[in-house]
Amino acid sequence: MLVYLRLLKESFSFAMNALRTNKLRTFLSLLGVTIGIFSIIAVLAAVDSLDRKVKADLSDLDKNTVYLMRFSFGPTEIPQWKREQFPNVTYDEFEYLKKSLNGVDKMAFNLFTRNENIKFEDQTVSQVRVTPTTNEFEGIDGIKIGQGRFFNESESNSGTPVIILGFGVAEGLFVDSNKAIGQKIRLYGQRFSVIGVTEKQGFSTFGDSRDNAVFIPMNFIRRLYGENSDMITPAILIKPEKGVDMEAFKGEITQKLRTYRGVKVTDIDNFFINVLSGFTDLIDGIFTQLNIAGWLIAGFSLLVGGFGIANIMFVSVKERTNLIGIQKSLGAKNRFILFQFLFEAIILSVIGGIIGLLMVWGIAAIVTKVLDFEFVLSTGNIILGTGLAGFIGLISGIIPAISASKLDPVEAIRSGM
Fold first, then answer.
1. How does pLDDT run across 239-266, given as a tens digit for each residue?
2. How does it sit in the membrane (predicted)?
3. Are 107 and 97 in contact (CB under 8 A)?
4. Which residues contact 191 (CB under 8 A, 6 or more apart)?
């Protein structure tokens, strides 16, 4: 055991000597490994960070939540011209399903509309995402109210001009966002009373976060624009009870809405039942493809890096031929010589990998600070990067190490003179 520890120490010494005496050559040889490890770990860390953020954003949502609307979240075989003929879901349909559908925990009617400017005295926040909805939305979307409250059923049904501000909107409108409750802001040319402010969410993987959003009673918009305005796209959000058979649940939604709309038996559904779990599966598929793309891109750099390590080891063997001969003449066995050069190749490769990991760590720190997005370099990715660098060194150094171990001691000493 002590012999191999001494061997590892000598190999490390030889690797450091190669770095000191042949800086440019060693740097160029390690560059491929550094870039390769940087590429793959950067991609994996980015995908892991995004995946973690997506799961955090969706953590308050039931994955079985249904978005019933005229559009599909994912790819569909229905041609675009036919989809464009689908009617929007209506408030009457929402009320009908709310009364007749079984297995429902909560159901809300939501409107997607354009961004607006919001004013308070001389302060303006631009491009705010307005979400007109019913009071049940709070229990479906998992909105976290930091101050005040969400609007109640009475305010929702009557379309009372009350508003819940996103954290960022409140900060943009008021010098002290803690005093936002009870203030009057202007939206759509009318005054709204602020009754709530959401907790800070930060960066969102799904466009604007709730920090840049406001929530108002949906019936206010219905009264202002009607239901057939091109400015709005309605959706019915349905949160089923726990343990519900989703296929049977979707089948009941389909049957009831087809019956309500009078869709013929021979005609296809003129609506889409989008289940959030299907959307998350789609996101997981995208992340998997990104990981594969990262491995392919990094693979070429690692291949070049492997050739660089092999090259520097062949040169090292040639430079130390005389030393190898002396070691073997003093009794060093073939495996001792083999491990000496193999350890050296691994150490050099791991050094290149560590440099690549340090680059990822630096970028992660900058991105986290600048973009308010937690870019995480996990322990698993650090171990993977280091292990991958060591494996590249092992593969690249095996042939030079074998050639060194098989040298004849007499010939090695003679050729080194």
1. 888 888 888 998 999 999 999 999 888 8
2. Multi-pass membrane protein
3. yes
4. 161, 184, 185
Buried b (16+ CB within 10 A) or exposed e, 347-363: bbbbbbbbbbbebbeeb
Please give the mean pLDDT across all residues of the chain: 81
CB atoms within 10 A of CB 51: 17
How many CB atoms lie under 10 A from the CB of residue 386? 18
Q: Answer yes or no: are the C-beta atoms of 96 and 227 closer than 8 Å.
A: no
Distance CA 33, CA 46 (A): 20
The Cα–Cα gap between 114 and 186 comes to 16
pLDDT at 77: 83
Q: pLDDT band at residue 18, thresholds of 50, 70 and 90? A: low
Q: Quick check: 90 and 227 in contact, CB under 8 A?
A: yes
Q: Quick check: 65 and 140 in contact, CB under 8 A?
A: yes
> Which conformational region is residue 182 in: left (phi greater than 0), alpha (psi within -120 to 50 degrees), or beta?
left
45, with CB counted inside 10 A (0-12, 13-18, 19+), is buried
Strand partners, 131: 215
CA 274, 277, 280: angle at the middle one, nearest 5? 105
| Cβ-based burial of 406 (10 A; exposed 0-12, middle 13-18, buried ≥19) | exposed
Residue 244 burial (CB < 10 Å; 0-12/13-18/19+)?
middle
* Position 74, amino acid: G
pTM here is: 0.63
- In the numeric block, the tokens 């004013």 are attached to 119
Cα end-to-end distance, the chain, whole Å = 33
Q: Are 144 and 94 in contact (CB under 8 A)?
A: no
